[in-house]
Amino acid sequence: MVFNRSRVIPARLYGTETRSGARVEVLLVRRQEPGIWQALGRPGRRLRVGARVTVEAHDGSRSTQVEILEALENGLRLVRVSDESALGGLGELPLPPYIKETPDDPERYQTVYADAPGSVAAPTAGLHFTEALLDRIRSYGVTTAWVTLHVGLDTFRPVHGEDIAEHKIHTEWFEMPEDTAAAINAARRAGSRIIAVGTTTVRTLEHVARDADSTAGDADLFILPGHRFRLVDAMLTNFHLPRSTLLMLVSAFAGRERILAAYEEAIRREYRFYSFGDAMLLL
Prior knowledge:
Monomer. The protein is an alpha+beta fold.
């Protein structure tokens, strides 16, 4: 059983644009190198190249500055964060817009095994697991293994247009540790199944299966119906947004008609969808 150990970072920053004094929001999307990030911001007119945003703690004890370096495609900005070490005390978890109330305990939006900071959204299939459940799974002889894929916002963007093959999905950083690769190879030799927990784990495993020499870097695999799965034998996944790349991935695995029928049944039985919702096991 393979899990994504990526941890959600406090990537949503609220601050003041220094020239105008306007309140702005900056959402760090992807770290390119130390101090340099791709980010989204609003209002966009306040965040032109050269703008600086001061983000300060409520008590004034800590602060950092975000400088807009470059305008990128799809509304993204390239920014410099002056003090990344301050983010933990200044930023907020970037909860999806359909979550209207912030959880009392931010750890509710983290998996119990998350220890690799870098995601801007939780690999939510893993939220169903507790330490006790993991111990129980292992007691049945199931091997647990870990990969990292830092989840970006592009994973959740709806697909527009009629030709889904033309949809551009951005890369996400991943890592396949040597011990995980060894565990997967041992399971294969023993005839055991590889169960991926979450679509991000699926994407990581199938990317590595496509390029066996790639154990860390940028995953760019867009899994559509017709994809031949090379590593994943089963997956646990939540119920996803319509017209999302995630829904296309599970349809590629189980078949579109079967997935649509499962979703209709879930709606009829009032299952919960999305991040804090229920999950399905696809065999």
